[in-house]
């Protein structure tokens, strides 16, 4: 269609197939139609095309908007969805359909269409992440007093609660949602009117088109409009970070559900067995989520590599970024969705967790702190005493709850060559995991009351994000409906 002036021959079939983007462009179908609707209305309002011509074009675009994209001719020679749309309009409206492309390029159109499509996609990802946060917070609310060991270096460190752990993951995911909030704002800048890269001398109204399509502002520079995809990179970066956080949850699910840890039970619906070993229960959902994170990192690195040395302005290289973007969106959304359902059904093995706390000397730090507070010892001295206590107990095969004050005094003599005096009650309280957790009532700590306060804060943040999503979703929907109403009026 647009080759007949410059070229005498059609594009070679394999070259046409190699360079087309129709498969990835399906998601841009309705945004492209909306852009052409708004652009056509503006052209008519500015007197650049006649009202009768615009009416014919708009009527055709409205028919196209209500057509199933799967029924359209998507032959490779059309190259992309933009030409599919234009071909449809020209066939239905006649030669006046060719006026639709006045003062518009595929370059500014594709940038605008991706932003419009991303508005909906980002909101959907955030919805799924919020569902995952809610699942984790529900676990927290049910397990405020469920003791478990906390880990550093994958070694038992100090006692905490399952609620504290789930709240920690929730806090990280809420930052992911906030990052996507910020990235969403980058989609509110309109590239339409930039044309190929230098704009146009025709008297168009960029602001009118931006308003009809729901953009808050115009891009500041027409070259930058068509040649930048930093808004996509920003979103992909946020998605990659969210996959990091989900992968960490997945890794802990895999560790904790293993026979060696045996601290949680994964719902049967999210596990599989072996084709040869009938005893196996494999947490395959967590494994796939962990693996998918690598895909998203690859998408981001591919997009960054694609952009790193790309000269201004538009190059068809940008076309290859789009499938990476869609994959990152889809994989993140799917991961959040299935992880939300799985985590809602996870059950902690409370007795096992409690025994792990005892067997790992997790209250050693609390005992050292007690020596500091009760006896005024320098912390390094207290550290040495308790360290020797643990060493002796390990050699004797004792757990911390089997130790006595005499064991502590003996360890003090070994470590510092002096005995200490501490009451039996202070010693017993210090090595009790429940007391140690309850004593950590500082903001953000694991004490049940403190975690309950954390949950409330996290719930409030989740509600705030949900409200933002609803407002944005409603705004996008109302903008689209307002445009369609105007098109119906003008195409009669």
What does this protein look like?
The structure is a single chain. The protein folds into three domains: 13-102, Orthogonal Bundle (Fumarase C, Chain B, domain 1), CATH 1.10.275.10; 117-144 and 162-200 and 217-350, Fumarase/aspartase (Central domain) (Fumarase C, Chain A, domain 2); 364-431, Ribonucleotide Reductase Protein R1, domain 1 (Orthogonal Bundle), CATH 1.10.40. It is built from 19 helices and six strands. The chain has helices at 13-19, 22-25, 29-45, 51-65, 81-93, 106-142, 162-185, 206-212, 222-227, 230-256, 284-307, 321-345, 350-359, 364-375, 379-396, 405-416, 424-431, 433-439, 448-490; strands at residues 147-152, 155-161, 189-190, 217-218, 264-265, 347-348. The strands form three sheets. Strands 1-2 form a two-stranded antiparallel sheet. A two-stranded parallel ribbon has the order 3-4. Strands 5-6 form a two-stranded antiparallel ribbon. It is elongated and about 100 Å long. The two termini are 28 Å apart.
């Amino acid at each position: 269609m647009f080759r007949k002036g410059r070229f005498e021959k059609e594009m070679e079939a394999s070259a046409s197939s190699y360079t087309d983007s129709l498969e990835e462009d399906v998601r841009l179908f309705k945004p492209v139609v909306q852009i052409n609707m708004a652009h056509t209305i503006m052209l008519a309002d500015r007197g650049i095309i006649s009202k009768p011509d615009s009416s014919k074009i708009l009527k055709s675009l409205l028919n196209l908007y209500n057509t199933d994209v799967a029924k359209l001719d998507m032959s490779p020679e059309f190259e992309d969805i933009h030409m599919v749309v234009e071909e449809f309009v020209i066939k239905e409206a006649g030669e006046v359909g060719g006026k639709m492309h006045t003062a518009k390029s595929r370059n500014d159109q594709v940038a605008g269409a991706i932003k419009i499509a991303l508005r909906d996609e980002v909101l959907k990802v955030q919805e799924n992440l919020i569902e995952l946060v809610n699942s984790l917070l529900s676990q927290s609310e049910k397990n405020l007093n469920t003791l478990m060991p906390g880990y550093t270096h994958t070694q038992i460190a100090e006692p905490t609660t399952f609620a504290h752990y789930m709240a920690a993951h929730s806090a990280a995911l809420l930052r992911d949602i906030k990052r996507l909030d910020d990235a969403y704002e980058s989609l509110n800048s309109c590239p339409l009117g930039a044309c190929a890269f230098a704009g146009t001398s025709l008297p168009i109204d960029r602001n009118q088109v931006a308003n009809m399509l729901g953009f808050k502002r115009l891009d500041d520079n027409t070259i930058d409009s068509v040649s930048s995809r930093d808004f996509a990179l920003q979103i992909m970066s946020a998605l990659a970070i969210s996959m990091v956080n989900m992968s960490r949850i997945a890794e802990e699910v895999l560790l904790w559900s293993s026979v060696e840890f045996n601290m949680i039970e994964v719902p049967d619906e999210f596990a599989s067995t072996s084709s040869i070993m009938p005893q196996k229960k494999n947490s395959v959902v967590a494994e796939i989520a962990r693996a998918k994170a690598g895909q998203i990192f690859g998408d981001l690195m591919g997009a960054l590599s694609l952009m790193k040395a790309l000269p201004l302005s538009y190059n068809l290289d940008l076309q290859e970024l789009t499938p990476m973007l869609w994959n990152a969106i889809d994989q993140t959304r799917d991961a959040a969705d299935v992880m939300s359902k799985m985590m809602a059904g996870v059950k902690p093995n409370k007795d096992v967790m409690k025994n792990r706390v005892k067997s790992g000397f997790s209250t050693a730090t609390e005992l050292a702190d007690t020596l500091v507070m009760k006896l005024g010892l320098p912390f390094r001295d207290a550290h040495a005493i308790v360290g020797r206590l643990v060493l002796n107990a390990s050699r004797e095969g004792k757990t911390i709850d089997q130790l006595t004050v005499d064991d502590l005094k003996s360890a003090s003599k070994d470590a510092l060559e002096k005995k200490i005096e501490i009451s039996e009650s202070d010693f017993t309280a210090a090595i009790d995991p429940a007391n140690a957790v309850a004593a950590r009532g500082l903001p953000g700590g694991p004490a049940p009351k403190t975690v309950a306060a954390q949950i409330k804060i996290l719930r409030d943040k989740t509600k705030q994000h949900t409200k933002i999503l609803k407002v944005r979703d409603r705004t996008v929907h109302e903008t689209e409906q307002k445009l369609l109403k105007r098109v119906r009026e003008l195409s009669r």
